[in-house]
Amino acid sequence: MSIDHLALLGALGSEASWERLDEFHPDGTHLWSPDAPIALGWHPYTRSSLWQCAQCSGAFLRYTEYGGYYVEERIRPLLADLIVNPEHS
Ligand SMILES: [Zn+2]
């Protein structure tokens, strides 16, 4: 897909949540599984931003992953069915 048509709506996380690195995967998914829960307040959504496509109005989440020797741009569709808001233990 092209990301040229994406417009920034805003950040999902806050300054306070930035340092949270725990993830929420009750069903054994991993970071970027297509069916991973979009857990608000949990990594990587604490560091994700919300974008909207001008062509199809679809909403997408973007997250830039900084490794030791790489920077990788991650993007996934914002699927309402996957959004959860679980408590941290
Ligand atoms: Zn689109």
Low-confidence parts: none
Mean pLDDT: 91
Q: How much strand?
A: 25-35%
Helix content: under 10%
Number of domains: 1
The helix tally amounts to: 0
Radius of gyration in whole Å, from Cα?
Answer: 13 Å
Order of helices and strands: EEEEEE
Strand order of the largest sheet: 1-3-4-5
Ligand list? zinc ion
Calculate the terminal CA-CA distance, rounded to whole Å.
37 Å
Q: Name the structural class.
A: mainly beta
Instruction: Compute the number of strand runs.
Output: 6
Q: Main sheet? A: 4 strands, antiparallel
Shape: globular
Brief characterization of the structure:
0% of the residues lie in helices and 34% in strands. The protein has 89 residues and is mainly beta. Strands 1-3-4-5 form a 4-stranded antiparallel sheet, with no helix packed on it. Strands 2-6 form a two-stranded parallel ribbon.
Question: How would you portray this structure in words?
Answer:
It is a single chain. The chain has 89 residues and is mainly β. It has one domain. 0% of the residues lie in helices and 34% in strands. The protein contains no helices and 6 strands. The strands form 2 sheets. The protein has a 4-stranded antiparallel β-sheet with strand order 1-3-4-5, with no helix packed on it. Strands 2-6 form a two-stranded parallel ribbon. The mean pLDDT is 91. It binds zinc ion. Zinc ion binds next to loops.
